[in-house]
Amino acid sequence: MRSPLSLESAVASIANRCARTHRQGLGPGLAVVLTHRSGWCEVMAHGTANVVTGQPVTEDTVFQIGSVSKVVTAAALLRLVEMRSIDLSAPVTDYLDWFEVRSEYEPITLHHLLTHTAGLVSLIDTVSASEHAVWQLRDTETGFAPGTRFHYSNMGYLVLGLVLAAVTGHSYADTVATLVFEPLGMSASSGASPGHCRPPLACGHERRDGAAMPVLPASITGGHAGVVSTPTDLSVLLRMLLDEGGGYLATSSALCMTRGSVTTDWPCYDYGYGLFSGRIETLGGHRIIQHGGENPGFEAVMIGDLDTGFGVGVFVNSYEQPWELAQKALRILQAVDPQGLSSDPPHGANRDQSDSRCPPPPEQSRHPLAGRYRAHATLLTDFAVLEDGMALVLESGDGYRQPLTHLEGHTYTIGDPPTPERLTFGPFVDSRVLACAIGGGTYSRVESE
Q: What number is the average pLDDT over the span 125-138?
């Protein structure tokens, strides 16, 4: 058995390891947060958030966290369960009546989606919008009877994000802000990854000939990978989980997340709601919770030890994997005696239950076709359809505008005089357009940035 390590010594050891790992190529930007369920938190920042501008990484830098967003989605759904606004055993179609997938089995429930046991494909494509991708599930088939196997599916959590929006009447981003970020005090977090990297947002990067180069900023929305956050904010979420809900969630709800109920294809790990968990021998045989995430140009890891109460979050604005650093940092913290750490009031313990109810849905006044449309596999990657008085215009990414003239049905001509291209909108759900087609390419509608 190792001798207890002082917290100061542990932090110094981890700081040295972080600096060395960054110098060896984990970056260009690296942020690490260490925390304990008592409230203690320490942030370490290295390198640059954007190699073009030289913007440094700080404790306030905002990173895309990829699939760690699933933890936020699960927490929001459990809050709605506690508010008696949703039933996780109910079929998805009870809340999203247009949801459809080819299946010879029983209906898919929210529980199946939360545990990756619905039998859905992992991902339709790389389009960042949510409704259109979910609409395309009707062209796929379930791979097995719901509840019988684990198969990790981003599509499942994309559906859950739409369920949250349908139940509350607000976008996914607004819903998780109301149900998760505001009550936990995560003021720097958002449920939508914007399509830019202006400060305090970090820019994603990839290696080209050994040098870090920016990638095209991806606007990602939805319950699978849309959240952006800071190291400090992520530590709040992690402490809530390590503290069995910490007054924000009921203990029984928190345990639905931290106690895996489904066997996965990851050795030693089961899956709860939004989290992998298991006793990991390389981490002292302790009860570990974790989730990683990857978006274009970003990697993130959140890992916690339920036995000691310590947790680690790692953010990187490139494709280098941060798992080894996260696990080594947690292993060092496991040697610390947590007795004597300051104890703050549980997060959300004094929350007025009525405050967490969502406000009424906003009135819709925009033209039904107005919005931003995006694709990743075409020359014109994104554009916006804007209102100009009583008319519509198409604005490309460089700000160039062309008038749209109604031709027939949902089809418009572009430009004056018109170009050969035609812009056709559809499909539609509840009078909302999900996508459009132009020049042989399909563009999914995304939430406004």
A: 75
Helix/strand/coil for 186: coil
Q: Quick one: DSSP state of residue 92?
A: G
pLDDT reading at 300 higher than 90: yes
Nearest to 171 by CA among 29, 76, 282: 76
Q: Tell which wins on pLDDT, 29 or 192.
A: 29
Rg (CA), the chain: 23
pTM equals 0.83
Contacts for 385 with CB less than 8 Å, ≥ 6 apart: 367, 369, 370, 371, 372, 373, 392, 393, 394, 395, 404, 436
Q: How confident is the model at residue 125 (pLDDT cuts 50, 70, 90)?
A: low
CA distance 94 to 167: 10
Residue 449 has pLDDT above 60, yes or no: no
Q: Where would I find the H helices in 136-207?
A: 154-168, 172-176, 182-184
- Label residue 140 exposed, middle or buried (CB < 10 Å: 0-12, 13-18, 19+): middle
Which amino acid, one-letter code, is at 180? V
Domains, the chain, ranges and CATH?
1-362 (3.40.710.10), 371-446 (2.40.128.50)
What is the rounded CA–CA span in Å between residue 324 and residue 94?
A: 42
State the Cα–Cα distance between residues 103 and 87, nearest whole angstrom: 22
d(CA 29, CA 205): 9
Which tokens go with 345? 């009031």
User: Residues 289-296: what's their mean pLDDT?
Assistant: 93
pLDDT at 421: 78
Q: Is 411 exposed, middle or buried (0-12, 13-18, 19+ CB in 10 A)?
A: middle
Helix (H) or strand (E) holding 369: none
Are β-strands 205-208 and 211-214 bridged in parallel, bridged antiparallel, or unpaired?
A: antiparallel
Rounded CA separation 297/423 (Å): 31
